[in-house]
Design goal:
By secondary structure, the protein is α+β, with helices and mostly antiparallel strands. It is built from six helices and eight strands, in the order βαβααααβαβββββ. The strands form two sheets. The protein has a five-stranded antiparallel beta sheet. The longest helix has 16 residues.
Length: 187
Amino acid sequence: PDSVLIAHNAMFDISFVGCEADRVGLDLSENPILDTVDIYRRYHPGLDSYSLLSLARKFKIDKDQSHRAADDAALVWKLFELVSEQFPYISGDSEFRKAFASYRYSQWQGEPVQLPDQFQDISRAIEQERPLEIVYASNGRPPQKRVIRPRRVHALRSQYYVSAYCELFEEERTFRLDRIQSFKLVN
């Protein structure tokens, strides 16, 4: 591994980034991943919250919460730079592993997930590369009809996620399966 990756709530991000790395054939399996949640809990114990936005507010880092990947990545980097001033000198891999909890992509299970029977149209849309019309309820917004082109399904803990191209936003998005209120194949 020629780089250390940094994430906020790394075990959650590993599944998404690992899914995309697997899709494009990128092997990140041995790159260490540092978790800024873990780092801030160690260096600033007792905070009320360790969410990305809470830490940005606490440490006076400007942030408009669009919760998009590029904005969040920039914020994670700013938080890491800020806390890294407190790190001890680390001379090698063994000291690094003692100083930080780190993960590796090899911990992410990249095998496709078999959906329960009631979601076979989603599986069919992936297999046949067909569009799917969904009604999706995202955080605090009324349900919205969208047409997506599902690419893959993966699971994190007990939750299923569908990675798909969203025609509404004209970009790749991830949809929680439990927030898809209805779906049907589009001809």
